[in-house]
Design goal:
By secondary structure, the chain is mostly beta strands. The protein has two domains: about 210 residues, Jelly Rolls (Sandwich), CATH 2.60.120; about 70 residues, Sandwich (Immunoglobulin-like), CATH 2.60.40. Helices cover about 0% and strands about 45% of the residues. It is built from no helices and 21 strands. The strands form four sheets. Strands 1, 3, 4, 6, 11, 12, 13 and 15 form an eight-stranded antiparallel beta sheet that branches. A seven-stranded antiparallel beta sheet has the order 2-5-14-7-8-9-10, with no helix packed on it. It is elongated and about 65 Å long.
């Protein structure tokens, strides 16, 4: 999980750094907008870009959820909220890499696109909701979920407004994966000079969260109504039958949703592990070398 509360240093809760480009991104309180400070992306064509990919990279076939609070001051064009792409050598478009994009259209529809970047342009499959869902002058809680194959769902205010499937080509199950060493995410801009002219809006963002390893909701839900809870972790020590520390695969799941929150190997010397988790009850599963599992249920992260 990656959560951006949009503090003034543009760091997220996983320790990733986001760099402002094409001007000074600001976290500010707009007098006419309720709710206090938010990230403002305006007609100066500013945007944030992940300094490193790290755990922001989402491989094709993996489910994910993008959610955010959105307020449009003016919306004359397409407002790109979060875009995953690739930086090719000498060009923002890489012919061997793919990505996705989430944004708001000028008619108030929510757009979610997936595809490959080729020959200086993007070939996207898109899911677009009905128009008029997002209007200037109000805050909206938006969530877009992709199940890792072809199914996509969109929620506004916690209510599902769209559930559809991408076509058999250029969907997240088939799109060409991008390498882990290229930049992977932008906030406030699509990828490539092909789209530079689209950054012409004035809008605010709060509480942007990217959840990997599966969808977070899958049904109507109650929006957080503010900053998402801070990150928690699960830690412990794995020992064998003789009581000696060993290296074993450990996975952490949300007990409510079954979402995989973290996975890794315990330390081969100490047997210690520490994995990212989430608020709420958790299930921790440890596997031995034969694939047998030991389950610890009703676990709470700290």
């Amino acid at each position: 999980m990656v959560s951006l509360p949009f503090s003034s240093d543009f760091s997220d809760r996983k320790g990733n750094t986001w760099l402002p480009h094409d001007g000074a991104c600001t976290v500010e309180a707009v007098p006419s907008v309720p709710g206090g400070p938010a990230l403002r992306l305006n007609n100066a064509a500013t945007y944030l870009e992940a300094a490193t990919v790290g755990d922001l990279a989402i491989p094709p076939g993996e489910g994910f959820t993008v959610e955010f609070d959105f307020y449009a001051i003016s919306l004359p064009g397409y407002a790109a909220v979060l875009t995953n792409g690739a930086a090719g050598a000498g060009d923002d478009n890489d012919p061997v890499n793919g990505g996705f994009g989430v944004g708001i259209r000028s008619d108030g529809a929510i757009n979610f696109g997936i595809g490959d970047y080729k020959a200086g342009a993007a070939y996207f499959n898109t899911v677009t909701t009905a128009a008029g869902l997002i209007l200037p002058g109000s805050w909206y809680a938006v969530a877009v979920e992709h199940y890792g194959d072809r199914k996509a769902e969109v929620f506004v205010g916690g209510a599902q407004v769209s559930s559809t499937a991408f076509s058999a080509t250029n969907n997240w199950a088939t799109v060409t994966p991008y390498e882990a060493d290229v930049l992977g995410l932008r906030v406030g801009s699509l990828w490539g000079p092909y789209y530079t002219g689209l950054r012409v809006n004035d809008f605010l963002l709060r509480n942007l969260r990217l959840t990997r390893h599966g969808v977070r909701y899958g049904a109507d839900y109650t929006p957080a109504g503010g900053p998402f809870p801070g990150p928690v972790s699960v830690s412990g020590t794995v020992r064998d039958a003789a009581g000696d520390p060993v290296s074993r695969l450990v996975r952490v799941y949300s007990r409510d949703t079954g979402l995989l929150l973290g996975a890794g190997l315990s330390d081969p010397v100490t047997g210690a592990y520490s994995l990212p988790a989430d608020v709420g009850e958790l299930t921790v599963v440890c596997y031995d070398d034969d694939g047998n599992a030991q389950v610890y249920d009703h676990v709470t992260g700290v």
